[in-house]
Amino acid sequence: MSNKEQTLSIIKPDAVERNLAEKIKIIFSENSLKIKETKKLHISKDEAAQFYKVHQAKPFYDQLCSYLSSGPIEVIILEGENAVLKNRELMGATDPKNAADGTIRKLYGVSIDKNSVHGSDSVENARKEIDFFFKN
Ligand code: CMP
Q1: Angstrom distance (rounded) from CA 76 to CA 9
Q2: What's the domain range around 42?
């Protein structure tokens, strides 16, 4: 049975700055994740705080919001079979030093903050995160 989903990917400031966006998008395309829409933007710290609200109680929240708003990012709607899980597999573990060989974070991540990409962790959050960046 088919299970077509959409998920949100963010190419974070460290990866945009190093001109890795095209390479990362090729990894998605070569793994059957279709790029439906993409947008480059530079969000404010308040917008980052809204986006990462689920993490507001975490000790790294302030640093996380400062980082996501520190430079240009690219937000991408990906679509494909089991897109949420597939994208998470392609990204690898949150901390690049724990990420499996061949994953985006292993290839390009610098640290747990500068880990190059964000991906939605569930279908429900994917819907919310896509709406956050693409509604209107
Ligand atoms: P991301 O997938 O964008 O979701 C939340 C982010 O918080 C995560 O990637 C990391 O870049 C960042 N982060 C910073 N410190 C930590 C930490 N100690 N544990 C988990 N995530 C962290």
Answers
A1: 5
A2: 4-134
